Amino acid sequence: VGKPNVGKSSILNSLLSYERAIISDEAGTTRDSIEEALKIGTHLVRIIDTAGIRKNAGKIEQIGISYSLRAIEEADVILAVFDASQEADEQDNEILELLKNSQKKIFYVLNKCDLGVKFSAPVGAIQICAKQGTDEIVNSLKTYLDAQETSEILLNSARQISCCEAASEAIKRALNLLAQSELELFAYELNTAIEQISSITKPFERSEILDEMFSNFCLGK
């Protein structure tokens, strides 16, 4: 997260190693959240590039900003990106204040450090220069995620818990239908379960999963 034009989309592209987000000098280029799966060590995470947060935004951009604020609430880890070459302005300070009240793990990232550092960042902030890339971000995330490993999956929001409960109920219905050889209804319930799980992990190609499962069925007439 961060205000427009601090380099959030550039960091996303660097982490993914391909051009996923459009990059432009024009503020407000990213108006909707972009979600992608990213492998950090042994961890598969879902990374979200959010619209820049600012006050004077148009109606469409304001919708994107509302998605950004919701992403902050639902995220487990937040990468807060700031332009190191500029002193903190009112919008930066408001974002810092917003994050200060958050209970989430926050990594403060100073981007564009090769242009000089004028931004007064919190202690321990990650500094990014054009030549260095995002290795330090990846290493910091890996260290944090490795330390969080447990034998149980932790669900950190009511939405995640609700999605898992809905997926569990759909799987139960699917198993009952499978026992009755109601394959069309079984596929429907399985599809529902996949949708619920993918909303808190990474998007799945549902048709591929269903094709793989049904390839092992032998139906008699």
From TrEMBL:
InterPro entries: G_TrmE, GTP-bd, MnmE_dom2, P-loop_NTPase, Small_GTP-bd. Transmembrane segments: none annotated. The gene is trmE. Residues 1-146 form the TrmE-type G domain. SUPFAM superfamilies: P-loop containing nucleoside triphosphate hydrolases. Pfam families: MMR_HSR1. It comes from the Bacteria. This is tRNA modification GTPase TrmE. Gene3D superfamilies: P-loop containing nucleotide triphosphate hydrolases, tRNA modification GTPase MnmE domain 2.
